[in-house]
Amino acid sequence: MPLSWNEIKNRAIAFQKEWEGETSEKAESQSFWNEFFHVFGISRRRVASFEQPIKKADNKQGFIDLLWKGTILVEHKSKGKDLEKATQQAKDYFPNLKEHELPRYILVSDFQRFKLYDLDSGNQWEFELSNFVDNVHLFDFIAGYEKRVYQDEDPVNLQAAELMGKLHDCLKEIGYIGHDLEVYLVRLLFCLFADDTGIFNKGIFWEYIDLHTKEDGSDLAMHIDAIFQVLNTPEEKRLKNLDENLTQFPYINGKLFEESLPLAAFDSKMRVMLLEACAFDWGKISPAIFGSMFQAVMNPKERRNLGAHYTSEKNIQKVIKPLFLDDLHREFEKIKGNRNKLLEFQKKIA
């Protein structure tokens, strides 16, 4: 669960006081950003890396100060340096970033000043460290509070279906079909959702796929199978010498990962597809349309016309609320103070 905004603001005030007057980029910049992420209850090392080597636009070697793939790129300078120049330096890295690594936000700072750019909306903000607490809401996407608005035909849902649809088509094309394919995709979708919604520690599935599998995809199916097996095994029954990168995955009680499936097979193109799906923010997907979205994933013809075929969350709510949700809500309001009736009510809706 995200930290409360009160806790985040208290941490922001402490962060301001701790770093007031700091000037040296090299000496303290990494500690600065570790503590910056701590303000929002996030472990920096779980989501972002320092000094990632990359070729710049002029093909010279560069190093990104901090990158959270798909989310934010940070360029840090010593106090008083030109932040506009730092912003351009950050943008010079973009041509050689992979599609799924491209961030939505750029943040530049010299300890005492911040400039934040939202590349999707075109908005930008500038503020002093001394006003960090008053601007901390700008980083709701780090804290896990980013607002989303459901639309009749939400393009976020359509994009998610398209991402998984491409992977579905490739698996089907190599002969991975039928029930096995359906279960396999549901498992992958669960992992993608879990990565962004707090079931897993944030980003661990993406990190594992990105850092522990070969670029040609030749060992990807083996690693995915290992993850599935770990998810189906209670912690106390796991091998004592299990790789620590796998032990971080929690036990998922239920039958989703119980069935033994044949190994799939991936190539470099399919691995990139999965990484693009990992980079997508699955926390923005409406669970109410998941079923119809998944049906479209499995049917290329429906997928091409998804906007016309799936029932939006808004319309689902219009249907199910008057059918039974409104009545259930009224009944609950009447009995919520009576424990015995609440137990009967629970059995009724189970």
How would you describe this protein?
It is built from 17 helices and six strands. With 350 residues, the protein is α+β, with helices and mostly antiparallel strands. A six-stranded mixed sheet has the order 1-2-3-4-5-6, sandwiched between helices. Helix 1 (5-19) runs antiparallel to helix 2, helix 7 runs antiparallel to helix 8 and helix 7 (155-173) packs antiparallel against helix 12 (268-279). 27% of the residues are buried.
Provide tags for this entry.
alpha+beta, 6 strands, 17 helices, single chain, 6-stranded mixed β-sheet, 350 residues, 51% helix
The proportion of residues forming helix, as a percent range, comes to: 40-55%
Radius of gyration: 23 Å
Largest β sheet strand count, sense and barrel closure = 6 strands, mixed
Q: CA-to-CA gap between the ends?
A: 25 Å
Short description:
The chain has 350 residues and is an alpha+beta fold. Helices cover 51% and strands 10% of the residues. It has helices spanning 5-19, 25-39, 44-47, 83-91, 132-135, 140-143, 155-173, 178-197, 204-212, 220-231, 244-247, 268-279, 290-298, 300-304, 306-309, 313-335, 339-349, and strands at residues 49-55, 61-68, 72-76, 105-109, 113-118, 124-128.
